[in-house]
Amino acid sequence: MLNLVRSCVMALSMGLAAAAFPAPSAPPKAAPSVALHYGAQAPLEDLKVFDIVVVDADHGYNPSTYRSPDSKLYAYAALTEVHPTRSYFQRIPAQWRLGRNADWDSVLVDQSQPEWPRFFAEQVIAPLWERGFRGFFLDTLDSYRLAARFDEQQQQDGVVAVLEELHRRFPGIQLILNRGFDVLPRVSDKVQMVAAESLFQGWNAQSKQYAPVSAKDREWLLQQLQNTRDQLGIPVLVIDYVPPQDRAKTRETARQIKALGFTPWVTDQQLNTIGIGSVEFVPRRIAVLYSSDEYPAPNYSDVHRFLDMPTNYLGYISEYFDVRQPLPPNLYGDRYAGVVTWLGGDVASASQPALQRWLYQVVQQQLPWAALGQFGFDLTPTWSRLLGLQTKEASTGLLQISQQDAMVGFEIRDFPADRTPQDVLLAPSAANARALLTLKDSKGQSYTAGAITAWGGFMHTPYVIQDVPGTEDSRWALDPFAFLQQALRLTPLPVPDVTTENGRRLLFAHIDGDAFPSKAEMPGNRFAADWLLTDILQKYRIPHTVSVIEAEVSPQGIYPQFSAQLEGIAKRIFALPHVEIASHTYSHPYLWDPSVRHGLFEHNHEAAINLGIPGYDINLQREIVGSVQYIRDRLAGGKPVNILLWSGDTSPGADALEIVAKNGLLNMNGGDTFITRSRASLTAVRSHGIFKKGNLQVYAPITNENLYTNLWRGPFYGFERVIETFSMTETPRRLKAVDIYYHTYSASKPASLTALHQVYGWALKQPLHPVFASEYIRKVHDFYAMALARDGEGWRIRGRGDLRTVRIPQSWGAVDLAHSEGIAGSKAADANTYVHLTGSSALLRTAADAPSAPIALSEANARLTEWNAQRDQVQFRLEGHAPLDFSLVLPRTCQVRINDRVATPSSVTPMAGTSVQRFRLSHAAALIQAQCARR
Fold it and tell me: What is the pLDDT of residue 174?
C-alpha cells in the first residue's frame, strides 16, 4: 500500500530541498493517464480506459494476457520498505532492516547496503519482468527517514544505485517513482513519471480518517511538484484520497489537480476502487436484483426478459444478484451506474433484513435505485422518511387514475386501475420528486403508484407491464427507456452498438442442424440437407454459419445406415467459402440445466431431455467438446470449428458456459426475439445475452422459424413473417441485426422452402453489411467489455476491436473528425448518428458547428482493416464478404483510386460544400486512396 509521508519526514525534506536543479529543459513529455488499483480483483476491462494501470502483481495479474493495446499494466513494488507478507521478506538479512513503519506494519530497508541493488533487481523486479511486466511503480522512496538513525546521503546514494541497476539489467524499463524529490536531479533520465500523495485530500493512517491537507503542507508539496515538472521536465502524478461513496468530491479534487497541470488519481485509501484521473471512467453496469423464490434462474425473470433490452439499448449492462444469496458488499458509483429491483412481492422473511440493510446503504451512498413491482418489504417509518413516502390506509372501492405522466402509457394507453400493492403517497416534503401515476379510491384518498424521486424512482405492479388477456403476451405500460434514464440518472453515452458496422445494419444467417437426415417432401427422395445445399446455400452467397448434430450424422449415431451420405453432404456444405462451421451438440439436449426445470420439464420428469441415444447419459464435455472435435476430425476439411449453437431450451447452466469458454469456443442461441405485427410489443425483444458466473451466453438476434410456424405445426410458410420482425427491430429504433436463423428442416417442405426464398430475397434488397455469426458473437462480447471515459469534452472509447460502432443522438451535433481519433466517419439514421471506429480505441468529439472533414467514410458493407487519414488525403482498406459497396464524403474535385486505378463513382449526391460519392465494385476487398487538392 502507498505510504503517506509523515510530518516529521516532510520537515526533514524541506531542509534538504536545496539540492540544485539543472537549468530548465525541454517542455515536459505528454503525461499518460494513470490508475492505481491494488485490489485482488481489479476490474481490468474497465481500467483499460487508462494508459497505465498499476496493480499489485501478487494477486496474479498477467500483463501478457491483458487485452488492451492502448493500456499497459505496471506492477507495484516498494523500494525503501517491505511488508512481511511479501514473498522475498524472509530473504532480507536482519542487518539490512533499518526500522519499522508502524502505520503500515512494514520494515524499513537500509538503502546503503552494497548488495541491496542486486537483491532488489533479482528478487523483486526480475520475477515480475519474467511475467511480462515492463513498467513499475516504485513506492516509498524516502521511507528510510522514518528510522531513528540513518545517513541521508548514503540512503540517497543507495536509492540512485538501485535505479541505475534496474536500467542496466532491464533495458527499456519504465519507472514511476513515488516522491524521492532529492534524488530526482541525478536520475531524471531514468524516470517516466513522479508521483506524490495528498495534495488536497489525504488519509491519516494514525486516526484512520480522510482529511484535507493543510495549506502549509500543500504549499511545500506543490513547490516540489512544480520544480519536478518545470525544471526536470518529468510528468507528475498526484494521488489524493477521498471516501469512495463521495464521487462529487472525488471529481472536484481531480479537477483541482488537473488544473495545476498534473495528472490526477483520486481514489479511496485502500486503492480498491476506480478513482477519477485525467479521464473519468463512466460505469455501464447496473446491479439488478431478482428473487430465486419467483424464478428458477435470472434468465427467466421479468427483469431480464423485459428490461434488459432497453438497458442494453441505452448502452448499459445488467449484472444479476439473487436476493436469497449474499449481496455484493461496498457497491459504489465507481463501477455501478445504479441498482434495479423487480420483485413480485415481499421477499422471504429470512432474506429481508439483509436486503433492507443493503438497500439502505445504496440510498445512503446516493447510488440511484429503480424499484419495479414491489419494494420487497413493508415500509417502516424509517424507510418511509428515507424514500420521501407516506404510508396510507388500504384503498377502498374502485381506483381511478387522477394523474398520469407522459412516461406511462407507452404501449397500452388505456389500462384498468388496480389496487396498488403498497399503499403509499409521495410526501409533501419529498424534494426533487415527480409523480408518474396517481390513483384515487372511492373515498377520495390518493395513492402514488410510481414516481421519479431524489433517490431514484419506482413503479408498482401492475403499471410496469400489462398482460394481454387470453395470450402469453405483454405490453409495456411504462416507458422503460425514459424510466431507466430518469430514475437512475443515466449518463447519455456513445452506445456500443452490435447491430451496425460502418453505417450499415448487419446481416448473417445461421442454421441449427436439426433433422439433417430427414427426407424432403419434394421429388427425388432427397435429404433435406441436400435441398438446403443446392437450393439455398449454393444460391445465396452471404455469410452462413451451419451446424450439425453429431448423433444424427456420424457412423456411431442413430442413423448409421445414412451416415456416409449425410457426412458427404455436410462436407460439401462446409467446403463452401461463405460457410463457417458450428456444432449443434452431440445428442441435442432439450434441457441443459437439470437443476432448473421449467415448462414441460417442471412436472414431467419423464420428458425426453435429448435425442435418446441408447446407453448414453448427457455429458456436457461430450456434448460440447466432443461434438466439436468430431466435426474437426471428419467433416471440416481443415476449416476451423469454433462455435457451439445451443439446442433445446437454449438455456445452458454456468457449467456448460464454462466448458465453452475454457475450450476457446464461441456460443450463441436463445433469447427468442419474436416481435411481429400481431405481437407488437418491445416486451418480445430480448437483450444481447446474459452472464452466468462470469461467462457470457450470446443470444441470437432473432428467433428461428419454430415460433413462426407454431412449433413446426404450421403454417409452414410462417417464417416469411420474420420480415416483420426485421422491420420492427429497425424502426423506430434499430434494436437487432438481420439474422436469418432456421433449422435444416426448413428445407424439407415446399412451403417452408418458399418462405426461405422470400426472406433471403428481402434481405438481399436491403443496404446491409454481411458478417459471419462468429463476427457478431465477438461484437457482443466486445459490447460487454468496452470501456468508456469522459476525456475533457470528448469520450475515450476502448474495446477489443471487434465492435466498430458507437451510436450517439443527433442532438449531440456532428462528429468533429478534426479533433477526434480512431474515427473514419459517421452515418445519420433517424434520430441517431452511427460513428465508425477504425480499431479498438477512439477519441470521440462532437460539436454543433464541427468543421466537416475533407474526406470521411459515409457507409460501407465491409470492415475497415486500415485507415490512414491526413487532412487532404486518406488511404484505407476494406475487406468484406460481398462485392464492395461504399460511400465517401468528399469534394467532387477529389480523386479516388481503387487498387491503384482511378475510380469513377456510381452515383454522386451533392451536400453543402461537398458530396457523397458511392462506389460499387465486383470484388470484396480493395485498397482505396482519396486525394483532394489543398484548400
Answer: 98
Residue-wise DSSP of 159-214: HHHHHHHHHHHSTT-EEEEE--TTTHHHHGGG-SEEEEE-SSEEEETTTTEEEEPP
DSSP SS3 for 30: coil
603 has pLDDT over 50? yes
Assess whether pLDDT exceeds 80 at residue 935. no
Long-range contacts of 899-904 (CB under 8 A, 24+ apart): 899/926, 899/927, 900/927, 900/929, 903/928
Burial of 869 (0-12, 13-18, 19+ CB in 10 A): buried
Mean pLDDT confidence for 468-488? 95
3-state SS, 233-291, equals CCCEEEEEECCCCCHHHHHHHHHHHHHCCCEEEEECCCCCCCCEECCEECCCEEEEEEC
* C-alpha span between 641 and 643 (Å, rounded): 6
- Residue in this structure with the C-alpha cell 497505465, named with its chain if needed: 52
- DSSP code of residue 146: G
Other CB atoms within a 10 A radius of the CB of residue 580 amount to 23
Backbone angles phi, psi at 368, to 5 degrees: -60, 140
Is residue 736's pLDDT more than 70?
yes
Instruction: Give the separation between CA 131 and CA 743, rounded to whole angstroms.
Output: 47
Q: Name the grid cell of 221.
A: 508539496
| Cβ proximity of 348 and 294 under 8 Å | no
Asked if residues 289 and 323 have their Cβ atoms less than 8 Å apart, the reply is: yes
Query: What whole-number distance in Å separates Cα of residue 377 and Cα of residue 355?
Result: 9
- Tell me the average pLDDT across 422-433: 90
Contact 97, 69 (CB under 8 A): no
Provide the mean pLDDT of the chain. Answer: 93
Q: pLDDT: is 685 or 29 the higher one? A: 685
